[in-house]
Amino acid sequence: MKNKGFGLWIRGLRFVSLGSPISCTELKDKAREVAALKMDRQRKKQQIDELDSIVRLKQAEADMFDLKASEARRESERIQRIVLAKSEKSEEDYVYIGWFKLL
């Protein structure tokens, strides 16, 4: 709290003491300023809430894509194992047929 002449100042707001009158116009101007600041603050709060919502949505989307990528990776590994098994089986059959022809 500071005393800067004509009234008492607290956090940038002037409170009138008995010896320093403030005009009605000045009070109305200050009331409009306060209302405008409150509206601006509310608008900024809404913007922050919207951005938070977008961030949560994008995070959920990223998690979904991570899950899909993991599923695709597992499917790829499964198919590779099948191909390897079939390749080995084919090789065994070829060797078996080769031995059979030699007999």
From TrEMBL:
Chain segments annotated as coiled-coil in the UniProt record: 27-54
GO biological process, any: regulation of gene expression
InterPro entries hit by this protein: OBERON, Oberon_CC
Annotated Oberon coiled-coil region domain residues: 25-95
Source species, domain of life: Eukaryota
Pfam families: Oberon_cc (PF16312)
Any one Gene Ontology cellular component term annotated for this protein: nucleus
Keywords, comma-separated and alphabetical: Coiled coil
PANTHER family from the UniProt entry: PROTEIN OBERON 2, VERNALIZATION-INSENSITIVE PROTEIN 3
Name of protein: Oberon coiled-coil region domain-containing protein
Native source organism of the sequence: Heracleum sosnowskyi
